[in-house]
Known about the structure:
Shape: globular
Strand order of the largest sheet: 1-2
Largest sheet: 2 strands, antiparallel
Structural class: alpha+beta
Number of helices: 2
Radius of gyration: 14 Å
Distance between the termini: 29 Å
Helix content: 40-55%
Amino acid sequence: xxxxxDSNGIVDHDGxxxxxxxxxxxxxxxxxxxxxxxAAASELLDGPDLVDFAVAWMAEHLAER
Length: 65
C-alpha cells in the first residue's frame, strides 16, 4: 500500500495552504453556521455546498497552473 507524504500538505503551493484559503473564503460568504460547541468556536458546513464552492474557487484561482 502506498501512502502520500502529507507532512507538508498534499499539494505543492506557495504561501498559505489552498484548502485553508478556500475554507476562509467560504466562511466569508456567511453560508456556514457558526457558534460554540462547549467552549470551542465551531462551524457547521453544508458539505455539497462547500464542494461546489471549492470547485468554482479552484477553477477561478488555479486555472493558470
